[in-house]
TrEMBL record:
InterPro entries: AAA+_ATPase, ABC_transporter-like_ATP-bd, ABC_transporter-like_CS, P-loop_NTPase. Residues 6-225 form the ABC transporter domain. Belongs to the ABC transporter superfamily. It comes from the Bacteria. This is ABC transporter domain-containing protein. Coiled coil: none annotated. The lineage of its organism: Bacteria, Bacillati, Actinomycetota, Actinomycetes, Micromonosporales. Pfam families: ABC_tran. The keyword ATP-binding applies. It comes from Micromonospora lutea. Keywords: ATP-binding, Nucleotide-binding, Transport.
Amino acid sequence: MDEPVVTVVGLRVAYGSVTVVRDVGFDLPPGGALCLVGENGAGKSTVLRCVTGLVEPSAGRVRVFGAAPDGTASFWRRVVTTVEQPSWYAGLTVREHVELVRLAGGDDPTDGRVDELLDVLGLNDLGDSTPDRLSSGERQRLLLATALARPAELLVLDEPEQRLDSAIRPVVAGLLDEHRAIGGSVLLASHDPVFVAALDCPVIRLHSGAPMPDDPGRPRPDVSA
Ligand SMILES: Nc1ncnc2c1ncn2[C@@H]1O[C@H](COP(=O)(O)OP(=O)(O)OP(=O)(O)O)[C@@H](O)[C@H]1O
């Protein structure tokens, strides 16, 4: 069997004396998707931050591609995340941002993928605009276009549906399906049950930082030394 892309065991995160994530555990296989759901403050983003190495767990184990996430360039070549909001380059257009990401990933920015992403995400008419002129929903589309512009093995997306209108949400779900179909994996948090249902993937429901007992992504004890 293929090794999981992500393994989380007995994850706990505390800020001072306040524990905000506890007993979270799951495996994410290659080509798989897993969605974290739950109320505001339930701990979803914190779990995503641990998986991307942006937050250090207080206890438990996180492995991505078999190793602790280390924030190195080689780690980020395999992982794309929207957990941190990017800064856009002043003076670069929407199209140029997507081309730049594609170029930096070693891909040909003129091979049609940029056009395809702008088209499917409804950004064609905004290709020559700069990001500061976009609405918040249009900027979210640009964020997703840049996330999908280079083929990373693991996508870690925090509420990819946020600020998107209902027409574009199924399009985004379709793009994530395509990513999985070529062997990529997706770990995400979402507040939209329709979007989650469209992804047709296991769900972990967090409540006050802990998984609800009936989750398929069941909590697992920390067996690390
Ligand atoms: N740096 C921090 N210091 C202290 N507490 C924090 C910090 N970051 C997050 N928290 C707290 O941790 C808890 C979980 O936050 P988190 O952002 O993971 O929730 P969430 O499920 O992603 O929420 P939302 O749906 O609102 O995005 C919240 O109570 C939040 O206030």
